[in-house]
Amino acid sequence: MMTLRTRLLLRPLQAVSIALSVSVSATASAATVWTDWGSASFGAPGSASGAVSGVGVTYSGELGGGVINGTGGIWAPNSSFIGGTSTASPSTVGDDLRLNGSFTGLNTITFASPVVDPLVAIWSLGQPALSASFVFTATPTVEAGGPKAAFGGSSITVSGNTVSGSEGNGVVQFTGTFSSISWTNTFENFYAFTVGINGVDGTVPEPGTLAVLGLGLAGLAASRRRKQ
């Protein structure tokens, strides 16, 4: 039978255990969420703004067009955009930002707060006889790829910091914590992109979550001192 002292000693551990359980549950249930682009100004340069999993997202650079507020249908079939860490297609939101590579400046996605392992989905990069590329300032990995419903094609490819395609489609991931993603792109008449994160896993832990863990650990230390 537990003594009162034993129960008091266990309480801080229980607090830490609960906080960790919440964190683990969030990790297990996290799914890919794509940006809901709410507004855009087309041009070279142009801009767009939206949000993903509660985090504000802005884009600046070339913007030849796009579909805002979920009325597009280019992200098909879903199977070409699901794989690896990408658990959902951008079709769940339906938005896209469109480029043609005529802009020579830097294109940049900026997050209002840092995100972990962001994903970029790319549609119709290049043509069968004309390859096109995104040259990023960080190194991505291919998570998913395949043909598109509209023009066929195949998966995008990665070599170093360069993502290329000849009618290429798919999703790349940037491993680490990012406040922004930047790249230049090469000419081709029409291709598109959007950005996503893996649900709550994509955001750096809030101070409140860290505070709960800190309080639990502090309580444990205090209990040990009292026992001594």
Q: Would you kindly provide a brief summary of this structure?
A:
With 228 residues, the protein is α+β, with helices and mostly antiparallel strands. It has 2 helices and 16 strands.
SSE order and pairing:
Blueprint: H1 4-29, E1 32-34, E2 36-41, E3 43-52, E4 55-63, E5 65-67, E6 96-99, E7 107-116, E8 119-125, E9 132-136, E10 140-145, E11 154-155, E12 157-159, E13 162-165, E14 168-174, E15 177-185, E16 191-198, H2 207-227
Parallel strand pairs: 11-14
Antiparallel strand pairs: 1-16, 2-3, 3-4, 4-7, 5-6, 6-16, 7-15, 8-14, 8-16, 9-13, 9-15, 10-14, 12-13
Helix pairs in contact: 1-2
Structure commentary:
The chain has 228 residues and is an alpha+beta fold. The protein has one domain (31-196). The protein is built from 2 helices and 16 strands. Strands 1, 5, 6, 8, 10, 11, 14 and 16 form an 8-stranded mixed beta sheet that branches. A hairpin with a 2-residue loop joins strand 12 (157-159) and strand 13 (162-165). The longest helix is centred in the N-terminal third of the chain and has 26 residues, at 4-29. The model is unreliable at 6-10, 15-29 and 208-217 (pLDDT under 50).
| Low-pLDDT segments | 6-10, 15-29, 208-217
- Counting DSSP E segments of at least 2 residues, the number of strands comes to 16
Secondary-structure-derived class: alpha+beta
Question: Strand-and-helix sequence, N→C?
Answer: HEEEEEEEEEEEEEEEEH
Q: Looking at the chains present, what oligomeric state does this protein adopt?
A: single chain
Q: How would the global form be characterised?
A: globular
The radius of gyration is 22 Å
